[in-house]
Structure formats: C-alpha cells, structure tokens
Write a structure and sequence with these properties.
The structure holds two protein chains of two kinds. Helices cover 85% and strands 0% of the residues of chain A. Chain A is an all-alpha fold. The longest helix of chain A has 41 residues. Chain A is elongated, with a radius of gyration of 27 Å. The relative contact order of chain A is 0.09. Chain B has a single domain, classed as Winged helix-like DNA-binding domain superfamily/Winged helix DNA-binding domain (Arc Repressor Mutant, subunit A, Orthogonal Bundle), CATH 1.10.10.10. Chain B has four helices and three strands; from the N terminus they run αβααββα. Chain B has a three-stranded antiparallel beta sheet with strand order 1-3-2. In chain B, β2 and β3 form a beta hairpin. In chain B, α1 crosses α4. The mean pLDDT of chain B is 90. The chains are: A mainly alpha, B alpha+beta. At the A-B interface, α2 and α4 of A face α2, α3 and β3 of B.
Chain lengths: 232, 112
C-alpha cells in the first residue's frame, strides 16, 4: 500500500482561507483572526492524539461551515459591503463621466483649432468625431491590455489613502467642470454652428451639480467606510 | 445543552465576565467557557467573532494583535469602561431572573 502524502497544514489553511476570501463578508482582519483560531484549535486537538489532518478536519467542523460563518459575518459587515459597492458605483460613474466629457472636449478643441488655423468651415464635425473616436479607441485598447495591473494598483492606492483620493477626485472633477464651461464658451465664440445660449446655461448648471455633487458623495462614502473599518 | 436562544442571549454576559478577569483571545475564551460549564455551553466557535466585533464597535471592548508563544499572532480583547458598566447591568438582570426562578421552584433534590 502506498503511504498517503504528508499533510501540509499551512497549505490546507491557505486553501481554506482562499475559499472564505471569495466572500465580501470577510475582511482580511477577520480571516487572520479565524486562521489564528484554527491554528490554536489544531494544536489543542493534536495534543489529544489526533493526526494533523484529523485535527484540521475537526477544528474546521467546530469553527462552522463557510456558509454559516459568511452569513454571520455578513450581518456584522453589512454596511461595509454595501458602502463598498456604492463607493465603486459612484467612482465608476464619475470615471466614465469624466472620461466622456474629456473626450468630447478634446474633439471640440480639435475642431476649434482646425477652424482657427486653417480657416476651414467644412469637415469640422468630421474632425470632432474622428478625434473623439481616436481617443476613445486608444484608451480602451490601453485599458484592456493593461487592465489587471492597472486596476489592481489603482485599487491598492485608493484603499491606502482614501481621503487624499477623494480630494483628488474632487479637484479633477472641478477642473473638468471648468474645462467643459471653457469648451462651451469656445464653441459659442468661434464655431459657425449656432448654439442656443439657453441650452449651454442649463447644461452648465447640470454639470455643476454632477461634478461637484458626485465627488462630495464619494468623499462622504469613503470617509464613512474608513470609519466603519476602524470601528469594527 | 442550552437552547439556541439561551446561547445567543448569554454570549455577551459570558464574554464580559471572562474578560473582567483579564484580557483574552477568542479561542481561549471559548475553551474557558466550555470548561467552566462542564461542556454544557458550546458555541459554533466561529460565531463568537462577529459577537466580539459587535461588542468592540459598541465600545464595550478593545482589541490588539499580539504575538503568541507559538510564533503566530492572536487578537487579544480587553474590557473597556463601558463594558464594565454593561457587565454590572447584565449581572443585575441575570441574578433577578435567577432569584425569581429559584423562589418559584421547590428546592432541587441533591441526590438523584
């Protein structure tokens, strides 16, 4: 009979932990605590004569099934889970919004530049569209080629300094707001396309609410989340 | 064995009482309660931690990671002032229930 391979407690704990880490109900600190518990429990059970493998199975049984534990921890981290989802939702909305405004501003700027420097009145809309398309496709390709590393690094940095990042978001959105107003003034001032002054004014007010409101919401969410994480 | 409801109701006073005797960590807490109750009070061990976290969020306890003699880390819990006050309230309430029930019941036979 072949002897079974030696049981590796550290590897077993790693697998067990990876299983739990998939659920948003557990924070890394919770998992550290449960792992410490399992180690203590395994050590005590081994002292009663069980093998490491047997001790691990019994210790896991006493700790509770992942599903039951997840349910109980989720109750405690409930606010955390939802605030986290909402934070990413608002951040995603802001990111996409900022990006599309930026692209559209770039297109307008290109059209204005073409009109100013070559005096062309035709093909301005085509120029606007082409620049927008180029920036859009270029950014998408960049994001998809580097997505994993890019987003991982970004998430780690945001989590490390939430206040700084919400301030940065606020500054960036304010800047985007100013740039947008500026590009609209340029449109009215230089382009032969006549734009209704009324539309521009209302748009400006709406952008203002959007740009200044969503970073404030994000800042509130992020600071609230870090307070919750500290408290629990 | 206690019913599920009684286990749930008694967890907080048990934790407060154990920690009143000095700081401790989850696994030791469970062991101590099991021994003191002669195995009558057993928790699904992992369920204790959300309770500890809730108590900490309520400022009854504070926690600290410390290295254990085994070389790994353990999270130790200490009672805070609000926790001592909560313990006093719990004590009064549980003793009230206990006194009332013992007055209602005839003395328990000492030999079975």
């Amino acid at each position: 009979m072949a002897t079974p391979p030696a049981f590796d407690l550290n590897a077993a704990l790693r697998d067990w932990r990876a299983g739990l880490a998939a659920s948003p109900a557990f924070k890394p600190d919770d998992l550290d605590q449960l792992e410490a518990h399992l180690r203590d429990s395994v050590a005590t059970l081994q002292a009663t004569g069980l093998s490491t493998n047997e001790a691990f199975v019994v210790a896991q049984l006493r700790l509770g099934t992942p599903a039951a534990l997840g349910g109980e921890f989720a109750k405690q981290n409930f606010a955390n889970i939802w605030l986290q989802r909402l934070t990413w939702l608002v951040a995603g909305y802001m990111g996409i919004n900022l990006f599309t405004r930026l692209v559209s501003s770039l297109g307008t700027l290109a059209a204005v530049a073409l009109h100013q420097f070559s005096g062309a009145n035709r093909h301005l809309a085509t120029c606007d569209l082409l620049v927008q398309l180029a920036v859009l496709v270029g950014s998408l390709v960049f994001c998809f080629r580097k997505r994993q590393r890019l987003f991982d690094r970004f998430a780690v940095r945001v989590h490390a300094r939430p206040r700084l990042w919400s301030f940065l978001c606020f500054a960036l959105m304010t800047l985007a707001f100013v740039a947008n107003v500026f590009s609209q003034i340029l449109t009215m001032r230089f382009l032969p396309v006549s734009l209704s002054v009324e539309v521009v004014r209302w748009n400006t007010i709406l952008f203002g609410i959007e740009y200044l409101g969503s970073p404030l919401l994000l800042a509130w969410l992020v600071t609230r989340r870090s307070r919750i994480s500290v408290a629990s | 064995m206690l019913t599920k409801e009684l286990v749930a109701a008694s967890t907080v006073p048990l934790v407060l009482s154990v920690l009143a005797g000095g700081e401790s960590y989850g696994y030791a807490l469970i062991q101590q309660v099991r021994e003191l109750s002669a195995g009558e009070i057993t928790w699904t061990e992992g369920m204790l931690y959300p309770v500890l976290h809730r108590m900490e969020a309520d400022d009854l306890l504070e926690s600290e990671w410390k290295p254990a003699p085994t070389g790994h880390r353990r999270k130790y819990y200490r009672l805070l002032k609000k926790g001592r006050q909560a313990l006093q309230t719990e004590q009064q309430q549980w003793l009230t229930v206990h006194r009332t029930l013992t007055k209602l019941w005839p003395p328990l036979p000492h030999s079975i």
